[in-house]
Amino acid sequence: MSLKDELSDLLNQGLADLKKINDQAALNDLRVSLLGKKGPITKVLRGMGALSAEERPVVGSFANEVRDQLQAAIDDRKKALDAAKLARQLEEEKIDVTLPGKPTTRGNAHVIQQIIDQLEDLFLGMGYQVLTGPEVEEDRYNFEMMNLPKDHPARDMQDTFYITNEILMRTQTSPMQARAMEKHDFSQGPLKMISPGVVYRRDTDDPTHSHQFHQVEGLVIDKHITMADLKGTLELVAHELFGDRFNVRLRPSYFPFTEPSVEADITCFNCDGKGCSVCKCTGWIEVLGAGMVHPNVLKMAGVDPDVYGGFAFGMGPDRFAMLKYGVDDIRNFYLDDVRFLNQFSMKG
Ligand code: 2U9
User: Fold this and answer.
1) Is 297 in the pocket of ligand 1 (CB under 6 A)?
2) Tally of CB atoms within 10 A around 183
């Protein structure tokens, strides 16, 4: 068979084979076998040395033509396969946007977080900063700087989760206040802050005790702060949160970090002060502890107690939530039972 006939056969056979190809990989294999370096056309072109000078250009140009035709046919086949693949994908991956969506359950702020959020909003509105800090604390910030020296009974191993001798789970959020006081530049103005967060006590859990609960503590330090500022602030908070008919009453108390110290009561929301089971017939409900910051606490944070002073208070959002919603067991807040938690959903 002449080289020209061989090329003609190659072309016909190639075109026939191409028609049978149905996927990209097979098409690529065929392209390599027909037009590749080891393919028949390359072989024919290599064998042209044996041809006469007249035959060589004729066969050469025919070989080029065969190669171009095959290449064009391969390109067309590739385009057709690509288009078919795309059409198949469009069909298979079609989404019916009119189908109803799957319902998803939306989360909800925890009931205690809702109370903390409300307090944060209120204090932010009065120009306080909201500062949060570590729950694993240094003894120095949690106790020492809060006027609770090494031999103080509140530091008992029975009451505190110690991690090492000097590191513990904070028992109050006041270490954050000590940190802030230490850092504050009083020449720039007063320090007004609240520190909300979780605290830990080595208590046995029961309906009124939890080894983990929340605190929102507040601190204001400036020149000329008096107990009247404390009472005015607490009254404002009570009026904002509950309404103007709520009064605040201060009773003397004791805390190591404040002097004088007070406990604050608010008119019973259940009986409007008339006396009921919620307020144990007193007409008042104890809501927080407070006082004027102890001079030792100021000194230890590097603040001069002869120039600066202030008030501090501490409240328990867990207790607020229990009073507000009539929850009789604090452990409910920490069991993560959605049947309990969903009762405080804000989704309406
Ligand atoms: C600094 C100085 C003083 C914060 C205070 C209380 C009184 C208090 C309790 C309320 C309920 C804790 O959550 S609770 O169990 N707190 O009675 N806390 S005065 O005094 C401070 C804080 C920071 C630098």
Assistant:
1) yes
2) 10
Taking the CB of residue 322, how many other CB atoms lie within 10 A of it? 20
Asked if 248 and 255 count as a contact pair (C-beta separation under 8 A), the reply is no
The full set of domain ranges for the chain reads: 3-93, 111-344
Share the mean pLDDT of the chain: 92
Coil vs helix vs strand at 224? coil
Residues 267-311: tens digit of each pLDDT: 998 899 999 988 899 999 999 999 999 999 999 999 999 999 999
pLDDT on residue 347: 64
Question: Rounded to whole angstroms, what are the CA distances from 188 to 87, 221, 222, 299?
Answer: 69, 12, 11, 19
Q: Which residues contact 209 (CB under 8 A, 6 or more apart)?
A: 201, 203, 330
* 52 CA → ligand 1 middle, Å: 109
Q: Which amino acid would we find at residue 312?
A: A
Q: Best-predicted range by mean pLDDT among 1-10, 73-82, 170-179?
A: 170-179
Q: 219 CB under 6 A from ligand 1?
A: yes
Q: How far is CA 263 from CA 5, 96, 108, 112, 154, in A?
A: 111, 64, 33, 22, 19
Q: How far apart are CA 153 and CA 159, in angstroms?
A: 9
Q: Which of 92, 72, 97 is nearest to 11 (CA)?
A: 72
Distance CA 210, CA 197 (A): 15
CATH code reported for the domain at 111-344: 3.30.930.10
What per-residue confidence (pLDDT) applies to 248?
Answer: 94
| 153-170: pLDDT as tens digits | 877 766 899 999 999 999
Q: Which residues are annotated as a binding site for Mg(2+)?
A: 259
Regarding pTM above 0.90, the answer is no
* 314 Cβ closer than 6 Å to some ligand 1 atom: yes
Which of 140, 142, 174, when mutated, tests ligand 1's pocket best, judged by the most ligand atoms within 8 Å of its CB? Answer: 174
Binding site, residues?
259
